[in-house]
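Morning. Coffee machine broken again, so started the prediction first thing and wrote up yesterday's gels while waiting. Chain of 480 residues, entered below exactly as on the submission form.
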Amino acid sequence: MTTRYRHLIDGRWVDAEPAIENINPSDTSDVIGVAPAADAAVVGEAIAAASRAARGWAQSTPEERFLVLDAAGSELRARKDELGRLLAREEGKAVAEATAEVVRASQLLKFFAGEALRVGGEVIPSVRRGLTVEVTREPIGVVGIITPWNFPVAIPTWKIAPALAWGNAVVFKPAENTPAMAFELVDVLQRAGLPAGVLNLVYGKGSIVGAALVESPEVNGISFTGSAPVGRRIVAAAAAATTRVQAEMGGKNPLIVLDDASLPKAVEVAANGAFFSTGQRCTASSRLIVASSVHDEFVERLSRRMSEMRVGNALDPETVIGPVVDAAQLEQDLRYLRIAAEEGGAVTGGERVERATDGYFLSPALVTRTDNGMTVNREEVFGPVASVIRVDGYDEALAVANDTEFGLSAGICTTSLSAARHFVRHSSAGMVMVNAPTAGVDYHVPFGGAKGSSYGPKEQGTYAREFFTRVKTAYIDADG
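Came back before lunch.
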């Protein structure tokens, strides 16, 4: 049955003409739902509602905010199997991974429920006699949240949960091709007890909804995750409007495999980081930098591992790699593979796969005989595609790993503590993994990169407060 999604504005579900079909990428005959596309006037109504609600929510007690987030987290956990299947059907990642993402969203809500209670401050003696200094944190006001399709419940949650925990009101614009999970998350939070207007959901095109959020003088902060070109435009526009901005913009993440690494371990780390979630992760291991002495054996082992990964319908429990999200993404992946071959790379895999249903199925692809100047090693492909770069040793591996405009995540496989510690210190990425996939982080620690991958304060953990709160310093003369 096809669902008709609606905007949520000022606590009311607002119907509008359906404009965007929500297509199951595992079965293109399955239309999951239809979503409206807001114009600037509708976005303005949502912003106005958030602005009206912001002051009251900012004055709510920590326990009131805790109870809402905690209840929402409990409901997501209780419905993980149901919502995991919906996520797999909508976005295309294997159902086990989709269910784990729902659990991750539940954990985020529970964590930030606790943060609502843990917000603190400082009392500092002044250098001047008779004065006391209080340093406190306050919400920034109205936050515009713009999220991608690849983690359609986890990424919105790790933005919305801290925004609400620290007393902000939100206007949320999800990706156009994953409206169902956005609806479910907002519906759960709304029913958990949020006052009208504190959380607003607006569907539509980024060029319209995103632009209206960035340009509005009533929006005090923008939190964005998406492509680098769009992120740079948002950062520039927000800076021009003196609006606080946080942007996560992708990566071209290296995984180094040294000659002393455990190759079975390195192959599993690479396969997980490069191909799980169909490679559609900004933290995916897309550049495999391998020492010459183990290069051939590593490639042979990884190729065998790739052949064991079942590509198929995301709802099939035997599936390891689901479809890519839509036709445009499939064509982008195939285009990058064509370019890699034209530039001299040898491509294994990367073929359209036929299944019982018509879907966007692509076998995992490994591109060998590459160097770091090739297009496939410079630009984010965002699919089940990894390239291999042969290097002579650690020093060259480190130089190649850091030779990128991005700096989100990086990894190394080695049994050398010295090499591991040196890489942690000298990697230019914001997150570094040792003998672990470059993709996959905990919900209670900071997430974010360096260089062209990220702009502004980190996300997640206690560090999220740096974006969602502002610091106030007060001097008090108790004697009047």
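The mean pLDDT is 97. Going to sketch it on the whiteboard this afternoon.
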